[in-house]
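Researcher: Let's try something more involved. This one mixes different molecule types, so please make sure each is placed in the same coordinate frame as the others.
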Amino acid sequence: MARDYLPELANEPEENIIGGVAGALDARTSTLSIGLTILNFGPALILVLLIAVLSISSPYFLTARNISNILAQTAVISVVAMGQQLVILTRGIDLSVGSNLALASVLGALAFHAGAPAALVIAVMVLSGAAVGAINGGFYVFGRLPHPFIITLATLSIAKGLALQLADGRAIPGMPPAISALGTDALGGLPGSVFVVLAVAAVFFVVTRTMVWGRWIYAVGGRPDAALRMGIPVSWVLVSTYVVSGTCAGIGAVILAGRTDAGSPLFGNLLELDTIAAVIIGGASFLGGRGHLGNALIGALMIGVIRNALNLLNVNIFFQLIVIGVVIVIAVEGDVLRNYLEGRVRVMQAGKQS
Amino acid sequence: MSAASLDPQERTRTNDPPVLSVEGASKRFGSVLALSEISISVRRAEILCLLGDNGAGKSTLIKCISGVHRLDSGSIMIDGRVTPIRSPAEARAAGIETVYQDLALFDNLTPAQNFFAGREIAGPQWLPRGLRFLRQRRMDAEAQSLLANLKVTLPRNDAVVAMMSGGQRQAIAVARSTVFARKVVILDEPTAALGLRESRQVLDLVARLRYQGNAVILITHNMEHVVELADRAIVLRQGRKVGELVPSADNKQQLVSMIVGA
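Model: All components are placed in one shared frame. Result:
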C-alpha cells in the first residue's frame, strides 16, 4: 500500500487542500482586519488630524511662511531618519548619527577654509558620514558584537570628541554659497533643503522597493538566521545599512551647514533620539523587518509639527520633550497592539480550516 | 514532468541510479559519535523515511546533507558524482532543498517574496546581484502557478506570512523547497506542530512532491505517516544504521522495535 500513490491524488477533488474557506470572512476577522488597517494608517491619520486641529487653533500655523519653516526644520531629521529606518529594519540602531553629523560638518568647514571648492566640501561631509557608518557596521558585524548599541554609542563619543577637538570647541562659520543656498528659498518659496529630502527619498524608494538589496534588508530584518540559510549575504547587508545611515548623517550635515552657514561640533545634539523617535512614531516596527520610508518621513514631519505647534501656542520648551516622549510610548504600544492583533488573525485563520 | 507519467509499479522496477547517496558518513561532536559509517541513498520519485529515537542522528545526518554541518568522513554523491557540501548555499546550488523544522520563513514577506528570498529573479545581469532590479511580476506569477500546481490555496496571496496559520506556513515552506529543488527535498518533521487536518494536508503535499518526481527524505515520528507514505524506511539508532525496509502495516511493530532497540 505504501508503494502506491494515494488514491485521491489521481483525481484531485475540487476542495482546497490548504487554506481558509475563500470569501467566508467572518465578522470577527474583519473587525480585526479593520483594526489592523487603522493601526497601519494611524500615524498618517494622526498627522492630518494634528494639522487640522492646529490650523483652527492658531492663525499662523497654516501660513506659507510657517509651513516652509517646518519643512526647513524637519529636513535634517527627515534625511537622517530615512537612514536610521534602514538600520532599524534590520533590528539595529544607530546612536552615532548626531555626532557623526557634527564631525562631518566640522570637517566640511575645515575643508572650506583650506580652500576646497563647494563640490569637494560636500564630498568631504558625505564621505565622512559614510566612513563613520562603515566603522559602525564593520565593528558590529566583523567584530562579532552582540548588538549595535555599544559600537554606535562608542562612535557617538569618538565622533563628538573628534569634532570638538578639530573645531576647538567652537562653531566654524562660513560655507560655500552653493551649500548655504540650501538654507535660502529655492523653488516656490520652499527652502532648497526640501528638495534634497525629496531627492534622497526618491533614491530610497527605488532602492528599497525595486532592488534586490532592498528585499534583502527586509529579509534580514524579518529573520536573520533564515536569511543566512537562504544564502543572503547577511553580513554585507548589515554593514551596508550602517554605511547608508552614516551617509544620510553626512547629507544631513550638508543641509544643516547650509542653513546655518557654518560647521559646528555642537550640531546634531540628540539627533539620534529625534530620528529613532521619527521612525517609531511614523509606524515602523522596532522589532525589525517592518516599515518603509513613508514611516520615517511622516514621523519626522510629526515631530516638526508638534515642536512648531507648541512654539506657536507658547508652550514651555521643556514641555515639548515630554510631549515627544509620550508620543513615542503611544507609538511603541501601537506596534505591540498590532503584533497582538496579527496573532489573533492567525488563530482565526487556523480555526476557519477545521 | 516525465516522472509523473510513470506508473508506480514500473517506477520501482526501473533501476535509475540514486539522485543522492551518502557513503560511510561519520560525524563526531567532541567525544560523541553522532554518525557512524552511515550509508543511504534516495531515487527520483521516492520517499525515504528516516526513523529513529531522539538523538539517533537523523537531524545530524540531514544537517550534513543540507550543508549546516560538515561530515568528518564519508562522501555525498549527487547523480553518482562526489559533491562536497560545505555550506547551505552549496547544498542549494547542488539542488538539495531543506524544509527546516522551524520553517525559516520570513514573517514580514509575502509567500512569493519568501519563495525567492536569496534567489530573486532580477536583472540586468551585468549589475552586482544586490543592485539588480526585481522582476516582481514574474516572481509573483511563478509563485502563483507553483501554488496552483501543488493545490495550495491561501486566504490571500499578497498577505505577509505572519498572517497565516501553522498549516499554511508549513505548506508555504514546503512549496518554497520545490521552487529550486532540482534533485532532493528534505523535510524535517513537517507535521510535528500541526493538528490532524493540517497534517493531512501537508502529507498530501509531500505525496505530491514525489508525484512530481522529486526525491524526498522525510523525518517523522509518526508510524502511520511512515506506512502511508514511505517507499523505504531507514532506521538509525545511536548514530548507526540498524535497519532498512519497506514499511507496511504488517511490519510496523518490527520498525518500532528497531527504533527503540528492543
